[in-house]
Amino acid sequence: MNGSTTGEQTAGQHDRDDSNGPVTLVLTFQGPRSAELIAAADRAGRERLGPTLLHHPRLRDEFIGLQVLRRPDGHEIVVVTVRDAATLDVLQELVSSSELLPGEDVSLLPGPDTAEVFQVVEMRGFGVPEVSR
């Protein structure tokens, strides 16, 4: 996951449908972004956030998928899908409470420009639960 501990918007602060079923969090980091910002975010995701989230029992069970989409100018969209909306609150708490690694610079982790939550109405793929509403 992309590294951010300072974003002002959080998944829990957005309107969302707390009904049963998968939800997707879409984080947008507007480009252009410098190579230094991208490297810091990549490191945070790879070395701090990814391991933290994947070792948490609830997230391990509720996590469906992650996609990080990036353009050449650094514009990035992070898409996280989990089995229910309450899991997003756990995810947000873990991200916001994770301690920076030695050498990480919070000024290089500005957080997303936007964060939106969507109810998944259709999802297909190998290894993911099929959803159709």
Description:
The protein has one domain (11-120): Alpha-Beta Plaits, CATH 3.30.70. The longest helix has 20 residues, at 35-54. 29% of the residues lie in helices and 24% in strands. The protein contains 3 helices and 6 strands; from the N terminus they run E-H-H-E-E-H-E-E-E.
Provide a brief overview of the structure.
Residues 1-23 are annotated as: Disordered. The protein has 133 residues and is an alpha+beta fold. It has helices spanning 35-54, 57-62, 85-97, and strands spanning 23-29, 63-70, 76-82, 114-119, 122-123, 131-132.
- Main sheet strand line-up: 2-3-1-4
Terminal CA distance: 28 Å
Task: Examine the secondary-structure arrangement and name the CATH architecture.
Answer: 2-Layer Sandwich
Total beta strand runs: 6
The percent of residues in helical segments reads 25-40%
**Poorly predicted ranges (pLDDT <50, ≥5 residues)?**
1-16
Element order: H for helix, E for strand: EHHEEHEEE
Under the CATH scheme, which class? Answer: Alpha Beta
Radius of gyration from the alpha-carbon trace, in angstroms: 15 Å
